[in-house]
Structure formats: structure tokens, C-alpha cells
């Protein structure tokens, strides 16, 4: 699903952004929760310290009335003759809260105050009346309450006690924060898609140029633009194209020169042989010279395929196949040709005619007859050539495309040829973005399948026997 580099890179960036934003949000939310809870605890300490200072500065007879006025459902205040919970090793937060309380009520000694700040009531806590309505109230879903209990020594036999709870933190998370994070993620995603598109566009252009080079060495060079690294890669690619083209042209020129240099003495030898008195040796010599001329011409055809400068044009491939079949039929060959509908292809007419001629000629030569079928399958042109011959050994199917390699079934009679027909056909078809494959048919004979990219399909059908 994510096969392209662009899609994979964007996906990795988006997942990374989502994970990082989620972790950041979780850390922020947790820190904010703890801050709010601790702030509530300090507020309770300040309120308790205020009540404690007040009770220390008024006559003792007024204490019950002040305690009753300060007591509430959410903040309990009451007096006992002993601490309401046992002294335990304080936590870091409890030590900080104790220090804050003593700073507000300086008269308190070290052993005159006990602070409890945890999620549950202290073990053995001496509960005041109505505690179940306050400290044991249900915590809202998703929120957290912490219990704050304080016992302060106010006299020989009097301890002033305070009990409160932090506010539920279910609503501590600001609702707009999720919207902000989602909006930031959307903006970052758009920027990532744009940036990765710019980074991968040169790779796409290079892939297109490489594909175009595979079918046409004289294709327009790749544009040398963009970042420094992209320009360097484009320059290297264009230099490679020039070297490949020069290599093919040098090979073609060398073979053309060799052909010319060899054909001149062969022509001279033929003239001298023809001027000699007629004899059996003269006939053999003329046949040998003709074979040499044919071999040289075949070599030259093979070399010229890669350097072919024929212009491409829109052509009717069905009509081209029918004309080739007509030419073979005029020589008495047994073959049929079926074209399901007009088929258009953008290519080199002469080169494609040579490729199809080589394949059909092989089918007639080695398989006695040829059945040619062409059809359009979506964006692909498929041409099948069946013969009635003995087929090819499976191990040699791939080898027959090598130059000067011929393969026939065991016991099949030897045929004339140089083993270049299928090699030339394959080079031409690959130059047009196509492919050629061989397979032995179950009912006997060989099937050659050729595929080419279609230019466009025409609706009117055409068929000929």
C-alpha cells in the first residue's frame, strides 16, 4: 500500500509527529494535573494556617464558635484531645507543606504539627462527624482527589484538626488543547507532503529519464536543475547517456566499416569467379560467396538495431501484421492472421516489421505453419504466434535470445540460419518498451508472445482469415 518512497517518508513523518505530540501532550497533562493538585494542597494549608492563627489570638472561650464557623462540608475543622492520625515518615510533598504551614504560623514547634497528603485517609484516622459526606465522596470519572489532613497542637490537651480534599482534576485538561494539537498536526502534515514531494520529484524525473533511455538512446537529456546533489546526479546521468550512445555508434560504425572492407574483396572474388570457365567448383565458390555476403549483412543488421535512427510515428500495428502475413502467404507459406480490432502503437515501422517478420519466419521455418493473433488488452497490445513444430527444450528457452544461439527439439532436422533472428526481434521490441516470451504449448508446438504498450484503441473491429 505504501510502496513509493514519498508515501513511506510521509507516513514515517506523520507517525513520528503523532507519537511525539501524543507523548508531549501526555507529559503536559500529567504535569499540569500534579501542579493543580499541589496548588490545591497549598490553598488548604493557607486556609488552615489562617484558622490556626486566629484561634491562637482570641480568648479560648471563643474557640468552639470559631471552629464551628470555619467548619464546612468540603473543609472540616474540629478539636480533639490527641492527634487524629499517627505520625509517619513524611513524603517530600508533606515536608514542603509542613514547612509552608510553619512559615505562616511561626509559633508551632517541630512536634506540634502533623501533615498527611495522600490519596487515601491515614490508617486509624479518627473521623469527625459527617466524614462520609466529604472525604469519602466519589471521585468523578477520569479525575483525581488527594486527601489533606492536618493536626496542630494548640494546648496541653487540645489538637486542632483540618481535613480537606483537592478539587477533581477531570476538567484540568483544556478542551482547546486537543484542537490545537490536531490543527498543528494537519499543518505539519501538509508541509511534510509538500517537502517530501519536492525531495522525491528529482528521483521520479530520473526514473522517467532512465525508462526513456532504455527505449531510446537519443532521448532528450535530463534537465540539470534543482539542488546541487540533484544537478550532479543529472549531469552524471546525461554523461552516461552520451557514453552509451557513443559506444553504440562506434560499434555500428566499426561493423559498417568491416562490412565494407570485407564486401569489396568478396565482390572482386565473385567477379573473377564468374569470369572463370564454368565448372562445379565455380558453382560452389559462388554459393560460398553468397553465404558470406548474407552473414555480413546479418551481422550488420544486428549491430544497427541499437543505433537505429528511424523516426517514431503513430502506426496501425494490425495493418502492419496483416501486410507481413500477406507477404508470406504470397510465397506459399501456411499461416493465418487474426486482428481483433484496429491497434495503434507509437513506434518505428521498419524496425517493428523486421521484428515481426523474424518471429513469423521462424514459426514457418521450424514449425511448418504460423497462427498469428493480435488483440488489445487495456493499455497493452498482445501478439501471439503459434506454430506446429516440435517446440524447444525448456532449458534452452532463455538461451535462444542470445546472439548466434539456435535451439531446436531433440531429433528435429537442422535448418539454415545464424541464430540472430530472435536476438534482433528482442532488441527491437525492448526498444519499443515491449517484451517477448516463449513457451511450449500443451497440444504441441511453440507459442511466442509479444507485448507492446498501446497508444490508443479504435472501436471499429477488423478480422481477416
TrEMBL record:
HAMP domain span: 197-249
Keywords: ATP-binding, Cell inner membrane, Cell membrane, Kinase, Membrane, Nucleotide-binding, Phosphoprotein, Transferase, Transmembrane, Transmembrane helix, Two-component regulatory system
Membrane topology value: Multi-pass membrane protein
GO molecular-function term, one example from the UniProt record: ATP binding
The enzyme's E.C. designation: 2.7.13.3
Reactions this protein catalyses: ATP + protein L-histidine = ADP + protein N-phospho-L-histidine
Transmembrane segments: 176-196
One annotated Gene Ontology cellular component of this protein: plasma membrane
Subcellular location: Cell inner membrane
Histidine kinase domain: residues covered: 257-456
Matching PROSITE patterns: HAMP, HIS_KIN
Keyword Acetylation (UniProt): no
Taxonomic superkingdom: Bacteria
SUPFAM superfamilies: ATPase domain of HSP90 chaperone/DNA topoisomerase II/histidine kinase (SSF55874), Homodimeric domain of signal transducing histidine kinase (SSF47384)
SMART domains listed in its UniProt record: HAMP (SM00304), HATPase_c (SM00387), HisKA (SM00388)
InterPro entries per the UniProt record, alphabetical: 2C_sensor_his_kinase, HAMP_dom, HATPase_C_sf, HATPase_dom, His_kinase_dom, HisK_dim/P_dom, HisK_dim/P_sf, Sig_transdc_His_kin-like_C
Major place of residence: membrane
Designated name of the protein: histidine kinase
Protein source organism: Roseicyclus persicicus
Amino acid at each position: 500500500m505504501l510502496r513509493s518512497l514519498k508515501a513511506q517518508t510521509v507516513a514515517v513523518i506523520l507517525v513520528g509527529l503523532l507519537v511525539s505530540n501524543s507523548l508531549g501532550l501526555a507529559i503536559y497533562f500529567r504535569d499540569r494535573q500534579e501542579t493543580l493538585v499541589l496548588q490545591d494542597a497549598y490553598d488548604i494549608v493557607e486556609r488552615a494556617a489562617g484558622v490556626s492563627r486566629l484561634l491562637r489570638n482570641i480568648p479560648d472561650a471563643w474557640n468552639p464558635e470559631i471552629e464551628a464557623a470555619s467548619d464546612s462540608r468540603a473543609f472540616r475543622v474540629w478539636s480533639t484531645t490527641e492527634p487524629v492520625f499517627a505520625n509517619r515518615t513524611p513524603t517530600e510533598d508533606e515536608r514542603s507543606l509542613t514547612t509552608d504551614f510553619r512559615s505562616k504560623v511561626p509559633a508551632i514547634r517541630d512536634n506540634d504539627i502533623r501533615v498527611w497528603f495522600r490519596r487515601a485517609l491515614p490508617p486509624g484516622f479518627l473521623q469527625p462527624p459527617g466524614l462520609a459526606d466529604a472525604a469519602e465522596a466519589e471521585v468523578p470519572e477520569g479525575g483525581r482527589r488527594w486527601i489533606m489532613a492536618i493536626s496542630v497542637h494548640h494546648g496541653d490537651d487540645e489538637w486542632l484538626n483540618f481535613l480537606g480534599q483537592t478539587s477533581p482534576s477531570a476538567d484540568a485538561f483544556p478542551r482547546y488543547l486537543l484542537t490545537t494539537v490536531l490543527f498543528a498536526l494537519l499543518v505539519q502534515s501538509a508541509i511534510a507532503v509538500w517537502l517530501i514531494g519536492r525531495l522525491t520529484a528529482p528521483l521520479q524525473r530520473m526514473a522517467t529519464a532512465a525508462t526513456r533511455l532504455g527505449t531510446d538512446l537519443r532521448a532528450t537529456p535530463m534537465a540539470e536543475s534543482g539542488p546541487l546533489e540533484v544537478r550532479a546526479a543529472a549531469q552524471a546521468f546525461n554523461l552516461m547517456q552520451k557514453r552509451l550512445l557513443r559506444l553504440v555508434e562506434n560499434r555500428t560504425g566499426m561493423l559498417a566499416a568491416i562490412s565494407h572492407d570485407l564486401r569489396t574483396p568478396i565482390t572482386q572474388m565473385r567477379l573473377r569467379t564468374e569470369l572463370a570457365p564454368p565448372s562445379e567448383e565455380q558453382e560452389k565458390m559462388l554459393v560460398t560467396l553468397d553465404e558470406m555476403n548474407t552473414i555480413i549483412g546479418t551481422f550488420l543488421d544486428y549491430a544497427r538495431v541499437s543505433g537505429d535512427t528511424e523516426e517514431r510515428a503513430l502506426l496501425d500495428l494490425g495493418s502492419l501484421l496483416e501486410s507481413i502475413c500477406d507477404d508470406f502467404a504470397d510465397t506459399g507459406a501456411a499461416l493465418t492472421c487474426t486482428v481483433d480490432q484496429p491497434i495503434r502503437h507509437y513506434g518505428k515501422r521498419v524496425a517493428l516489421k523486421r521484428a515481426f517478420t523474424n518471429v513469423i519466419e521462424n514459426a514457418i521455418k521450424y514449425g511448418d505453419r504460423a497462427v498469428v493473433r493480435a488483440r488489445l488488452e487495456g493499455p497493452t497490445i498482445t501478439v501471439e504466434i503459434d506454430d506446429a513444430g516440435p517446440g524447444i527444450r525448456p532449458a534452452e528457452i532463455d538461451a535462444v535470445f542470445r546472439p548466434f544461439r539456435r535451439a531446436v527439439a531433440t531429433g528435429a532436422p537442422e535448418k539454415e540460419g545464424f541464430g540472430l533472428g530472435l536476438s534482433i526481434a528482442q532488441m527491437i521490441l525492448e526498444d519499443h518498451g515491449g517484451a517477448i516470451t516463449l513457451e511450449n504449448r500443451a497440444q504441441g508446438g511453440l507459442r511466442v508472445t509479444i507485448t507492446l504498450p498501446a497508444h490508443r484503441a479504435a472501436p471499429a473491429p477488423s478480422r481477416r482469415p
